[in-house]
Amino acid sequence: MLETTVPQVSEPDVRTRLDYLVAAFTTQVGRDLEHWPAETLAEYTAAALELSVRHANRSAFYAERLGDRTVPTSIAEFQRLPFTYPAEIKGRLRDLLACSWDELAQVNLSSGTTAGPTTYVGYTAADLRGDGARYAPAGLFAFDPSDLVAVALPYDMATVGLSIHRDVQRQGAVVLPAGKGGSYGPPERLVQAIAELGVTTLFSTPSFAWYLAELFEQVFPGAGKPIAHLRLGGEGAAPTMLTRLGLRWGATVRQWYGSTEIGVIAYSCEQGTYHVAAANCFLEIVDADGGPVPDGTIGAVVTTTLGRGGTPLIRYHSGDRAVLLAEPCGCGRTLPALRMFGRATDQLPGRDGGVSPYVVEETLLRAVADAEPWYHVELTDTGTTLVAEWPAAAPATEQAAATSAIVQQVAVAGLDLDGVRWAEPGTLDRPRTKMRRVRDERTGPR
């Protein structure tokens, strides 16, 4: 057990308490958070969950939801608490606040990937100290004064752009607040700035980073690209997509997984494996009945904010699909390793359950050598069709063979495609916000 006492700070500053625990455990075991022994991480997590649930009870929402339940002192006790679902927290900022209004420093809106009223998330000043990124590894959220970092992610009412912006400045690097999809910063201007200023790091979504590379090559044909590091989030991507992005930009590629509601949830290591940001959140994988699943089994992602002072969330059932890997990662990090499969609402109807759209993306990019990631899958009452651009450099006579190969390969993953509809180059949507990879037009029962 950790032989130390959590300092008596003001109750809303629960983040300081958690930061103290991380520092104390790190000193005790002589290893940084990413390399703690499993028993140390479990001890920290139990203490962090107890503090976080106790703080969440200050909100009207959780005071009612948890009622007279005893605050859990172990992970097993914690996992008996009820889930929180996205629909329950929409439009309920004040009910969710676990601090007074004058202790609130910032409010953001969720990106709205599900229908209905808006979800608002509130942060205290302590919540904004790194926004969970401070425990991510060097090379993902770490910068030096020579860096010029373009943040091509949403700023307008969103969390992610401002969060990374603050981290860049906090570490002494220079930030270019590019945004994504805004009227003042169109992608053409960003490409110009990348070339003229020598941007070294680009934070963006995979699809937008590809689009920027496409534009760069059109505006500056034959010119070298200055970006050395791509840091990608907000969307998933197939392995071949990530490899091609790195080659196209001549840059290293790392990813993170997060949400407005929770913050940073996981980040990728040098080997491309996601690791849970265990100082910022607690992640569970559950089955359809809400019970825990063994490592190596795909299930639903459930996350809990650790140390959130403004709007804490307890056992938030997001609808994402993932698996905690049973084998340790070869990078040496001991944090839980994770593989993502996308949102439950984006899963394609397969013979044995949902199939990730990124299976289709991987198959497309492997089957057609010059294919670019401009595609979507249409679900109608009559079947499932992949719609994708046919590359200009590829002979049209090869379309039938490519279609046959794609249909056969995705069938192995359990998805029955009725065919592929090839579009002319440049005719499908380019990303201004999140890409819609699945377009569900079914009217009958699901």
UniProtKB/TrEMBL annotation:
The annotated region (Disordered) lies at 423-446
- GO function term, MF aspect, one: ligase activity
The answer to whether UniProt assigns keyword Ligase to this entry is: yes
The AMP-dependent synthetase/ligase domain extends over: 98-303
The record's keywords, sorted A to Z, are: Ligase
Originating species = Cryptosporangium aurantiacum
> Membrane-crossing residues?
none
Database matches in InterPro entries: AMP-dep_synth/lig_dom, ANL_N_sf
Protein's UniProt name: Phenylacetate-CoA ligase
